[in-house]
Amino acid sequence: MKDAVICLALVCSIPVFSQNLQFYYDFRHSLDPKLNPRNYPSLYFEYFKGGDSGSFLIKVQDDFTGQEGNIGRHFIQASKALRFWKPKIFLGLQYSSGLGIAEPGNYSYFITNAFSIGVSKPFQWKGAWFNALVYYTYNTYTRPSQDPLVSFYWGKGFLHYKIEFAGDLEIWTLNKNLGDSSSARLNGKRFYFFGEPQIWFKLNKQFSLGSKINLYYHVLNMNSTFQIYPTLAIKYKL
């Protein structure tokens, strides 16, 4: 997840620095027990530094999905936006990867390396901040997949930013045949969607309470179903 400050930094000439720590509790088992063995907490860290000529973002998320509350999934993403020309269209570079940690009797898995390059365009409309990105992504499966990735970020503050509505949506494709035995007979591309709209209520200068809603299509499984899982969250601005 990226805050509205990312979009703000891309359109302002004043350098911006931000880092925050977020704690989520995900209620997906309570809502959908057939597909989710348990509810679980997640810990998320974000570091951002930006200015008129570019920005750098790194985010790390650990999901405590394992038995006895152990970490079961780890994800990392690093992004760089830059420009050395007048129009405020940025060159974007991004890397993401991760892993799932096995429970007894199960197998570990990788969140496959993804390398992206493309352009982003931040803009402002009616007091809200937006950023639209279009990337080419190389996914390093056994049979590599080359795909478009479209992302859209937004953020808007209300009541002098005592309330903030932010989030992002992402659309991409992957090969159906990824080079493993389970997909060897498949052809063509599969469409994916992920979103995480969120709302925050500022408690003081450092703490905010809110919710992030995770939206999935083909991300968690190959069934053509739209999954919606809300969370309860607290954010600490470092």
> What is the CATH superfamily classification?
monomeric porin ompg
* Arithmetic mean pLDDT: 90
Low-confidence regions: 1-14
Strand tally is 13
Strand content: over 45%
Q: Give me the Rg, rounded.
A: 18 Å
How many domains, in number, for the residues? 1
Task: Give the SSE order as H and E letters.
Answer: HEHEEEEEEEEEEEE
- Biggest sheet, open or closed, and with what strands and sense? 13 strands, antiparallel
CATH architecture annotation name: Beta Barrel
CATH class: Mainly Beta
Count every helix, treating DSSP H or I runs of 4 or more residues as helices: 2
Helix/strand-derived category reads mainly beta
What general outline do the C-alpha atoms trace?
globular
Terminus-to-terminus distance: 17 Å
| Residues in helix, % | under 10%
CATH topology, what is it called?
A: Porin
